[in-house]
Amino acid sequence: MNKSETPYHPIPCAEYSRYECAIVQNQRLRLAWDDGSNLLQLHRVKPLDLFTRASEEFIVILDEENRQHQVRLDYIIHCTVLDEFG
Fold it and tell me: Residue 36: what pLDDT?
């Protein structure tokens, strides 16, 4: 079974709220996630939106090169809120 076929595992509400706050407060994040191909992605990102599709939750982000990604929330391995100098 490849990663895109794995069942979604809901994340804790506190983590979801942290993503919502980062979007509202225009905070940058350092985000590490499995890209679905078992490759680790690590980027400084700007979170733009959260959405649900087929009972799976996603965050929309812009990376350092202004490329947009949709990351399934349960694929996120680590998230740090960056300060203004981070």
Answer: 82
